């Protein structure tokens, strides 16, 4: 609850700090938000928190924050969980493992699978 937070009244609900790392003016902003129900606060925090992989050495990306890659060489699907991509095709990186593999979503049709990072280059996202 909000008990003990300066500036908040006794019946201010369930507060949470929101920190925007960079706004349109390239400034960090902090806001104090108050929720009527603790469950609303919990759901909001869960929804806005970064996802963390349970697999050691793997990084997960949100769809709004994922790197975009372009294939610099063709890749044939050799295993059931890989995806075939041709040179020049682009995809979003959804997962990155420290063993050199990327789990991607192909721009052209939304299909997903693993490709070796060594035959990709990161390109600027739209």
Describe the overall structure:
The structure is a single chain. By secondary structure, this protein is mainly β. It has one helix spanning 38-48, and strands spanning 14-20, 29-35, 58-60, 68-71, 90-97, 101-106, 112-116, 120-123. Strands 3, 4, 5, 6, 7 and 8 form a six-stranded antiparallel beta sheet that branches. A two-stranded antiparallel ribbon has the order 1-2. β5 and β6 form a beta hairpin. It starts with 13 loop residues before the first strand and ends with a strand. The model has no long low-confidence stretch (mean pLDDT 83).
Give a quick summary of the entry:
The protein has 126 residues and is mostly beta strands. Helices cover 9% and strands 35% of the residues.
Write the layout of secondary structure elements.
Elements: E1 14-20, E2 29-35, H1 38-48, E3 58-60, E4 68-71, E5 90-97, E6 101-106, E7 112-116, E8 120-123
Antiparallel strand pairs: 1-2, 3-5, 4-5, 4-8, 5-6, 6-7
Keywords:
126 residues; 8 strands; 1 helix; mainly beta; six-stranded antiparallel sheet; single chain; two-stranded antiparallel sheet
Radius of gyration: 21 Å
What is the helix fraction of residues, given as a range?
under 10%
Average of per-residue pLDDT values = 83
- Sum up the overall morphology in one term: elongated
Low-confidence stretches: none
| Number of beta-strand segments | 8
**Helix count, DSSP H or I runs of 4 or more residues:** 1
